[in-house]
Amino acid sequence: MANNFKMIAKTLYGFEAILAKELLDLGAMDIKQGNRMVSFVGDKGFMYKANLCLRTAIKILKPYESFKVNSEQELYDNIKLLPWEDFLDVNGSLAIDTAVHSDIFTHSQYVALKAKDAIVDRFRDRYGKRPDVDLDFPDLRINIHIENNYCNVSLDSSGDSLHKRGYRGATNIAPINEVLAAGMLILSGWQGQCDFLDPMCGSGTILIEAAMIACNIPPNLNRKEFAFEKWKDWDEDLFEKIEESAMKKIRDFSFKIRGYDKAPSAVMKAKENVKNANLSDFIQIEQKNFFESEKENDRYLHILFNPPYGERLEINVEEFYAEIGDTLKQNYHGTHAWFITTNFDAIKSVGLRASRKIKLFNGPLEARLLKYVIYEGSKKKSKQNN
After folding, report:
1. What is the Cα–Cα distance from 352 to 373, expressed in whole angstroms?
2. Which of helix, strand or coil describes residue 261?
3. Which residues partner with 139 through β-bridges?
4. What is the mean pLDDT of residues 14-20?
5. Alpha helices (H) along 134-278
6. Rounded-to-integer distance, Cα 159 and Cα 40, Å
């Protein structure tokens, strides 16, 4: 227990509960949900495991120090007092990310600048030289969060956002964030228990995340690097054991995961990304217009997709969404169909009543994840058969 410490997993709005469940399933302790974050307790090995295995986390932060600040000088002085040489060599490099919600500090970039000055001045005073700033590949990434006059300083164990899984080389116009895709799949109840279809698959992100959930593949297995690999206490043997243990839990999948897109360029990009993720055995992608397609068999089908909103493509939104509803009603009986949209007016054109509406955000845009249950024949008949 002595080696345990508190960590914070940052996430997207609406995913706090499913991230807490992921952490519980992984073996985290003292789990507490917050706003777009979940705090928890674990050891160094668990920090490695959280970065490797969590599907809905964006960052894993290791809180370092907290203090009150009422001026820029206080911020500078408090940051300079911290023994940064414990984490960083004088010849190393650093980067600082900031989030500020305060009347005292109004510019996050300025907070980052003051914090950087404090750290490099400490090194210069002690060693006569200073570390460099490297925003892309630093040896130490620091996170500073100021709420009113309370400052939290954390070490960022992830580095690049954890949505950057490492499999996506090619994208279409507006690819969906991998964490958003994984979270939507989990919210939809997808566990790999049936056939799956993304009928507007774009660059294949939803398909890849669906296959990784179905096979219990760690989502960040393809990542080239985590920030903790540059930390002074980096334990490569421990990380390899964690990775090996996670890979032993990978399971087989006996159903079909399919993707359609009518654009040849999207199909090509999606196939390339699926290949990068080593999932070609599990995912089939075809050039096909969803509106000209139909369900291929009588088995239950799970559909989840991210249709164009009008920002991405020149379309008549009302007609497009009406066609989504018509295609589902006529050609996809025995289906649970989920999709995300930021166009709330367009929802009215679908012509079906959503059984669930979940508020999410796609980037800065407020969105709804909608569920439509497409019955075999009439709803009444379906109930009689149950």
Report:
1. 9
2. strand
3. none
4. 98
5. 178-187, 205-214, 236-248, 264-276
6. 19
How far is Cα 210 from Cα 338, in angstroms, rounded to an integer? 13
How large a percentage of the chain has pLDDT more than 90? 87
Q: What pLDDT was estimated at residue 376?
A: 73
**Residue 63's beta-bridge partner residues?**
154
Number of residues assigned to the chain: 386
CA separation, residue 309 to residues 38, 285, 317, 347 (Å): 31, 22, 7, 11
CA dist 184 and 196 (Å) reads 14
Q: Using CA atoms in the order 202, 206, 212, 218, what is the torsion angle rounded to 10 degrees?
A: 100
Q: Which residue has the higher pLDDT, 7 or 104?
A: 7
Calculate mean pLDDT across residues 361-384: 77
> What does the block give as tokens for 246?
């996670």
Rounded to the nearest angstrom, the gap between the alpha carbon of residue 306 and the centroid of all alpha carbons in its chain is 15
Other Cβ atoms less than 10 A from the Cβ of 386: the count is 4
Backbone φ, ψ for residue 359 (5° rounding): -75, 125
User: Which residue bears the tokens 């997709």?
Assistant: 305
**Interval 94-139: pLDDT, tens:** 999 999 999 989 889 999 999 999 999 999 999 999 999 999 899 9
Burial of 56 (0-12, 13-18, 19+ CB in 10 A): buried
Tokens 């964006």 belong to residue: 58
Write the DSSP symbol of residue 197: E
Q: Provide the token pair at 271.
A: 């196939």
Beta bridge partners of 56: none
Best CA proximity match to 339, nearest among 377, 291, 305 = 305
